[in-house]
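Reviewer comment 2.1 asked that we show a complete input and output for one of the modelled complexes. We chose the zinc ion case, as it is the one discussed in the main text.
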Amino acid sequence: MDYIQAGGMGALLNNGRPSLLVIHSMENPLQVGRARGIAKYFAGINTASAHYCVGPDEVIQCVPTNRKAWHAGPNANAFTLGYEQTGYAAYSRSDWLTATGRAQLANLASVCRADAARYGIPIRWATDEQIRAARYGTPAGFCTHADISRVLGGTNHWDPGNNYPRDLLMQAMNGQQIGDDMPSVTDIWDWKIGQNGIYGKDNMPAWQVLGYTHADGLWTQGLVKALPGTILGTSIKDADGINGTVGDRLAWIDKRARDTEAKVDQVAAAVTALGQTIEAMNTGQIAEQVKAQITDALKGLSITLTTKENA
Ligand SMILES: [Zn+2]
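Response of the prediction step:
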């Protein structure tokens, strides 16, 4: 983790230990590079700071975890750690849960979890009572800047906002996989996917609709887990070694699906044919024949859908 010293750093925390961990949003776009931008900004001023600047791409520490930073107002800075993440308090839940947002959530969870373990702070959202008790050194848990404003005062910020996915951050801090939040059919319809497979609007959740128009005019559309920044022309390398674009891959998958349908017809025809000669064979022979026909018909039809970005 990189360290960029903030200009705003105070004396030791009460007892030299934090008892409450405070989640913020920086009020800038949730994007790669923005956490570093804020860390550099903190380095040049002494009026605001945080212990960490967290983005989808990296976490930068700006103040040691036993010293005060200027993030949560005069009533809270002496016993809290501050985690600034890129994004706006006005974001919707799906704004927070883009593929980029999920990467940031994972980074935040990881640094929070390490600090909680180090200082014996429980992984839980602190109640108002626990937030008050934290002032006297009782390890409380986590809260938001908005909670500080409401319970302790001294600040009026409401970040990271009402739609911040507190549930998923807690899941991630507990080491669970962050849920997929797969969109509903209505959501997908509302995206109004274009005929040539452009994926629609900004800030789409981590699931995206991919579309592909075939030479014969047929249209294939599927719901796939988004790769950050993926477009149909993006080069990908599949787990099975096939290289191409996302569009190529969709066409290939679709062809396999159509081939499979044709093969099913072939197998059915083979079984029918066997039925006509069945009286001439013993059970062992019948089994062998069926097995051979099916194996032959289905040869090479395993489909691997795992993909990864080719960078
Ligand atoms: Zn804040």
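The mean pLDDT is 78. We note this here for comparison with the apo prediction described in Section 3.2.
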